[in-house]
Each structure stands twice: as C-alpha cells, then as structure tokens.
C-alpha cells in the first residue's frame, strides 16, 4: 500500500460505512429514535441472569427480572 493510500484508508472506510448505512443515519437524524432503552433492559436482564443463575423458583425469577427492569421507577 502506498503512502498516500495508507493515509486515506481511514477516510475511505468511513465514507464506505456512511454510504452503507445512509438510510439508517438519515432516519436517526429525522426521528431521533434509538433502541438504547431496549438494549439497556436486555443488558440488565443478562446481568440479573448471571447473578441469579441457580434460582429454582420460576415465578420469583420472573418477578426479580421485572423489578430489575423497572428499578428506575421504584427509586424515584
């Protein structure tokens, strides 16, 4: 790879990524919607599952997940 191509490589890959994700990028800037809330809840459920892996009572396990996902409502 030549010196010039080596320095332009990050720019070229960035432009390629932007071209590939153009519709999603435009949609975000028009609507400002993300899936961060869902990803955050999924992460909390996974963390809860790691901490309570051997919980045998299924209803208590489900109740714990509901409490963990709605903790921000309880704390305030």
Outline the structure in words.
By secondary structure, the chain is mainly alpha-helical. It is 80% helix and 0% strand. Helix 3 (36-51) crosses helix 4 (58-69). The chain is elongated and about 60 Å long.
Concise synopsis of the structure shown:
The protein contains 5 helices and no strands. By secondary structure, it is an all-alpha fold. The mean pLDDT is 85.
The main sheet comes to:
none
Quaternary organization: single chain
Query: How widely separated are the two ends?
Result: 57 Å
How confident is the prediction overall: mean pLDDT?
Answer: 85
Structural class: mainly alpha
Q: Approximately what portion of the residues adopt beta-strand conformation?
A: under 5%
Helix content: over 70%
> Could you list the spans in which at least 5 consecutive residues all have pLDDT below 50?
none
Query: Number of helical segments?
Result: 5
SSE topology sketch:
Blueprint: H1 3-20, H2 22-31, H3 36-51, H4 58-69, H5 71-75
Helix pairs in contact: 3-4
Record keyword descriptors for this entry.
76 residues, mainly alpha, 80% helix, elongated
């Amino acid at each position: 790879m030549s010196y010039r191509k080596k320095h332009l490589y990050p720019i070229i890959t960035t432009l390629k990524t932007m071209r590939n994700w153009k519709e999603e990028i435009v949609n975000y800037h028009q609507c400002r919607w993300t899936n961060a809330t869902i990803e955050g809840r999924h992460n909390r459920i996974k963390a809860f599952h790691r901490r309570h892996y051997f919980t045998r009572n299924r209803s208590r396990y489900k109740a714990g997940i509901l409490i963990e996902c709605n903790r921000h409502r309880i704390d305030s």
